[in-house]
Amino acid sequence: MRADSMARNLFCHNSRNFWKEVKVNTAGIKTIPSVVDGASGTENILELWRQHYIRIFNCVQSDMYVANDADTTGIITTHNVHQAISRLSNNKATGLDGVSSEHVKFASTRVTPLLAMCFTAFLVHGFLPDSMIAVMLVPVIKNKAGKIGCTENYRPIALASILSKLFEIILLDMITEFVKTTHNQFGFKEKLGTDMCIYALKEMIYKYRSLNSSVFLCFLDASKAFDRVNHKKLFMKLTKRGVPKCLVRILAYWYAQQTIQVKWGNQVSEPFKSTNGVRQGGILSPILFNLYLDELSL
């Protein structure tokens, strides 16, 4: 069937869909190296990856405390859930629970009010079930022409529960007004991008050079910056911004209790905890990271 679809797209000169089909057909052809950083055998390599990510996600220690005061701000309604469901993307990999976005999108309308009740209870009580906060990391090679047996040539792809993504979309709408950052930040913002930042930089250089003035630049390359965010400082910043306590509390619980497993080939590692970094693949993660760095802006 896919071959027929490719043929139709080629015949109709629809190059975009043709190459999309080619990509889908060749996506399953992957080479898994037999040796990674000196470790050989699937089980040994899997444990190597587990220890690798344990070091990364536990390199910044912090004692996290969030007040457990009662706060019923932001009761989640059926409308909130319905709007969030409409923003879920199709054809995405499932998390450990095997539930896809299509399961939620095409479920009975009776499901929506039940989800609203559950999500509201999560907020009020500051609790999330283990199945929603479990994440599976899949190391994916960055440069196929590089060393495929080196951990530094891989980036982790996070597979999370679709219900956790749905909940995060709702939380995003509730938290956005409190975490707005300065106009000097261009990354992870709607209708903005690094190209605009580059343009502003070039214009500034041109201005000062036209005045025969020297221009001094300093570039900071923060290695694994996403992974080294201090949780305690992050939630202190959220509290300082006036984010409702129930939102800070549920995020603090999420970060403190989340478990991570690594998948290599067909095997999955034992779970481990994370004490630093924003959640891998989290919908809120870019927003929280921007907030964390906002004080660096002039």
Outline the structure in words.
It comes from Oryzias latipes. Pfam families: RVT_1 (PF00078). Residues 121-298 form the Reverse transcriptase domain. InterPro entries: DNA/RNA_pol_sf, RT_dom. With 298 residues, this protein is of the alpha+beta class. The model has no long low-confidence stretch (mean pLDDT 87). The strands form two sheets. Strands 3, 4, 5, 6 and 7 form a five-stranded mixed β-sheet that branches. It has a two-stranded antiparallel ribbon with strand order 1-2. It is built from twelve helices and seven strands. The chain has one domain (32-296). It is globular and about 65 Å long.
Q: Show unreliable segments.
A: none
> What level of helicity do the residues show?
40-55%
Residue-averaged pLDDT: 87
Outline type: globular
Order of helices and strands: HHEEHHHHHEEHHHHEEEH
Distance between the termini: 56 Å
Largest sheet: 5 strands, mixed
Query: Structural class of the helix and strand makeup?
Result: alpha+beta
Number-wise, the strands total 7
How many domains, in number, for the residues? 1
Number of helices: 12
Question: Beta-strand level of the residues, as a percent range?
Answer: 5-15%
Indicate the radius of gyration in whole angstroms. Answer: 22 Å
Concise structural overview:
InterPro entries: DNA/RNA_pol_sf, RT_dom. It holds the Pfam family RVT_1. The protein has one domain (32-296).
